[in-house]
Design a protein that fits this description.
heterodimer; A: about 650 residues; 4-stranded antiparallel β-sheet; globular
Chain lengths: ~650, ~90
């Protein structure tokens, strides 16, 4: 009965969404508040019904109702309860419903919070939110219904189970976090459309949606970092970013969203870049939908699978509508979006922001082009040309370094024009710091991109520290505060700005981690218990191989002692070789999986992968990697999240 | 499908319809949201914050004296207008 209720909820939600849009339209035409209130209630009902439908599916997953195709496909009786919950977003139809669920939660908050605020904007904001919900409701009602019954003509007693790679805590958190980011950009998008329609495009509007953009950006950043962490911990290739289409799909809106967060500062302070800001936020949302299209339509595996899937064309149609509507609105509102002022000098903070925006967009275009090129080549020439990580690295590493440089330059520039004196005063110490690090790196023999990146990291750090020092000094002289008191007050009274600088520090730490890639090394060997192998300045001794049976898999665990050259025990690693569904009589259904073990320190990670085992001869086949500086990527991620949360923390009204 | 299920679905449908159409049945057509004090207060708060940031930027040397004076004057004028509007609404 529950699956039918789920389907009915989705159908009702779709019908009521149309009613809601109609009621809001009647309000806009007649200005009769009763229509607004009825439309608002209908919009609320759409969200509640969508959330209800999601809980209905969750219930089916938990009780293992294999009569539903989705449940049979992504869970089994052996699947732990926690992963039955995460199976909600493991497959196509479930993840579309989950998109709708998150959007409904966001919509509920917006509708409740601003019921009687933003009087001009809210009817349009509501219309846009409900329209996006309608699109996903169409998908889950007519294209990929998560409540569809199984096709089997027999009673399904057990399901396929969840992919072992997805049975990981990080992978359980990563998709919802990323979805919260993707979907979160719907709110600023809705406000942007509303602002364009109502001609309310002033700086205050931009400031009001900054919090929503930051929330979406925070989750998007967190989702990307968690995805990298999962890839590093689970996939066993030793890296955290492979430039695959799914990763790129999440990275593109992040880039334009980041550019937007920077350029709205110019609009707030100077009334400039209004058109540009509109384009950026509209583009960010479109890229979120495009990202969902890339990952869900099957287009990346082959254009042919796109052609046979109903999902791809529907998504493409929606993207086309978005582009047409956004372009039309931008064109007709162009006269009111003109800047109040012009950038006067190349050495102004405004131009620093503009360059930073250009670089974000260039990276976004490079990633976009590299991602869709294989699809285009297959569609046009019938031959799929793969664009791999070397292309992305070759293009993006120099541009990324340029971006890092601007991260340091920005805070040192003065609004409108930086005088020669201010230029010398602000840049001397950061530039000297960069030069000292450059000379040091050169003297120890660095000759690759790290010769640029490490000095730039020093330059950026010093630039940010100087900005903090100037702020603290200002407070100490103005308010007679102590150093620590001034630092605390500086951050708490200017959360947005100094939270942003902390985010920049996080990015700088991440760049230190990225630079470590240049020194990665790896080896593979077969090793018998009791034997020792030498690699990368360490001796690896295989102590034993244990066999353990767990509820849903069997595991062989290698006990690997790692000794340094001073014969001191550094750590003991326990990489595992697992086989899921090992009791299945059909060998094709057994799923082998390597669970890594990593010893992580500030300067390097020792990464061990158990590739295979010969229990008769007590031989383990291992792959060992030495990955320098990876720790800094995750540390930078924490700092980035921390900085964003400072920026987001609401200021007290009394301030 | 049993009777209870059909009744549940019907109750859900009728309940939702009633919830949505109730405002349309009331006689009040005046919009209480034409001029909103919340929006004006929000604008005022944002402008006050902008002034504080401007003061800080000026004190740490991120903005010239001339720009500071012009921008501060403009922001103050904008706040005065909003305060007048708030008074009118009140």
């Amino acid at each position: 009965m529950t699956p039918v209720l789920g389907s009915i909820s989705l159908s009702l939600a779709l019908g009521i969404s149309a009613v809601s849009i109609l009621l809001f339209s009647l309000f806009l035409k007649s200005e009769d508040y009763r229509f607004y209130l009825a439309g608002w209630r209908a919009a609320l009902s759409v969200s509640v019904l969508s959330i209800l439908a999601t809980f209905f599916l969750l219930n089916e997953l938990l009780i293992s109702n294999f009569d539903i195709k989705y449940v049979a496909h992504y869970t089994s009786l052996e699947t732990p309860t926690f992963y039955k919950i995460t199976a909600l977003w493991a497959g196509q139809s479930g993840s579309l419903l989950f998109w709708l669920f998150i959007l409904s939660v966001y919509s509920l908050i917006v509708l409740a919070q601003y019921k009687n605020s933003f009087t001009k904007l809210m009817p349009w904001v509501s219309i846009v939110l409900v329209a996006v919900q309608s699109f996903f409701l169409i998908l889950v009602n007519f294209v990929e219904n998560p409540f569809s019954p199984t096709d089997a003509d027999f009673v399904v007693v057990n399901g396929n189970g969840l992919n072992p790679l997805l049975q990981n805590l990080t992978m359980a958190i990563h998709p919802p976090t990323l979805y919260l980011g993707y979907v979160g950009f719907t709110v600023p998008f809705a406000f942007a459309i509303a602002a364009l329609v109502t001609k309310d495009t002033g700086s205050l509007w931009v400031r009001s949606i900054r919090r929503w953009t930051l929330i979406a950006w925070l989750f998007q950043s967190g989702g990307i970092i968690l995805g990298g962490w999962w890839a590093y911990q689970e996939l066993g290739w030793g890296g955290y970013w492979a430039w695959d289409p799914v990763e790129n799909a999440s990275f593109m809106p992040w880039l334009t969203g980041t550019a937007f967060l920077h350029s709205i500062i110019i609009q707030e302070k100077k009334g400039m870049l209004k058109t540009w800001n509109m384009i950026l936020i509209l583009l960010t949302f479109t890229l979120c939908i495009f990202g969902t299209f890339l990952t869900r339509s099957g287009v990346m595996s082959s254009v042919h699978s796109f052609a046979v899937s109903n999902l791809g064309p529907v998504f493409l149609g929606f993207i086309a509508i978005l582009l047409v509507v956004c372009t039309f609105l931008i064109i007709i509102r162009f006269p009111i979006l003109k800047s109040e002022k012009q950038i006067e000098s190349f050495t102004s903070r405004e131009s620093g922001f503009l360059f930073n925006n250009v670089i974000f967009c260039v990276i976004c275009f490079a990633v976009f082009w590299g991602t869709i090129f294989p699809v285009l080549s297959e569609a046009i020439r019938g031959e799929k040309i793969t664009v791999g990580a070397p292309f992305f690295n070759q293009v993006n590493v120099p541009i990324g370094l340029m971006l890092l440089f601007l991260t340091g330059v920005g805070p040192l520039l003065v609004w409108r024009r930086t005088s020669k004196e201010a230029f010398i005063k602000n840049f001397t110490i950061p530039v000297l710091t960069g030069l000292v690090i450059f000379v040091f790196c050169f003297s120890i023999g660095l000759r690759n991109a790290t010769l640029i990146s490490f000095p730039l990291c020093g330059f950026v750090t010093m630039a940010i520290l100087i900005e903090f020092q100037r702020g603290i000094k200002s407070r100490v002289t103005r308010f007679n505060e102590s150093f620590l008191g001034a630092l605390k007050m500086l951050i708490s009274k200017n959360r947005s700005r100094y939270g942003g600088y902390i985010v920049h520090l996080g990015i700088m730490f991440m760049f230190i981690g990225f630079s470590g890639n240049a020194f990665d090394s790896e080896t593979e060997f077969a090793i018998k218990t009791g034997e020792t192998k030498e690699f990368g300045g360490y001796n690896f001794e295989l102590v034993n191989i244990q066999t353990i049976e767990r509820p849903n898999h069997i595991a062989w665990i290698a006990g690997l002692n790692v000794w340094n050259f001073h014969h001191e025990l550094v750590t003991t690693l326990f990489p595992e070789k697992r086989v899921y569904f090992y009791k299945d009589p059909n060998p094709d259904k057994r799923q082998p999986h390597s669970e890594l073990d990593i010893y992580s320190t500030l300067n390097k990670d020792i990464y061990s992968i158990f590739s295979g085992v010969d229990m008769e001869q007590q031989i383990a086949y291992l792959k060992i990697m030495i990955n320098p500086l990876v720790w800094w990527v995750w540390f930078g991620g924490y700092v980035l999240i921390f900085g964003t949360m400072i920026s987001l923390w609401p200021a007290k009204d009394s301030e | 499908m049993n009777l209870i299920f059909i009744l549940t679905v019907m109750a859900l449908f009728i309940g939702l319809t009633w919830y949505i159409i109730t405002p349309l049945l009331s006689g009040n057509m005046n919009s209480p949201i034409t001029v909103n004090k919340h929006d004006l207060n929000r604008k005022k708060t944002l402008l006050l914050r902008q002034i504080k940031e401007l003061d800080m930027d000026h004190h740490i040397g991120n903005i010239s004296d001339e720009d500071y004076a012009i921008n501060r004057r403009l922001l103050k004028r904008e706040i005065s207008e909003i305060i007048s509007e708030i008074k009118n609404v009140s």
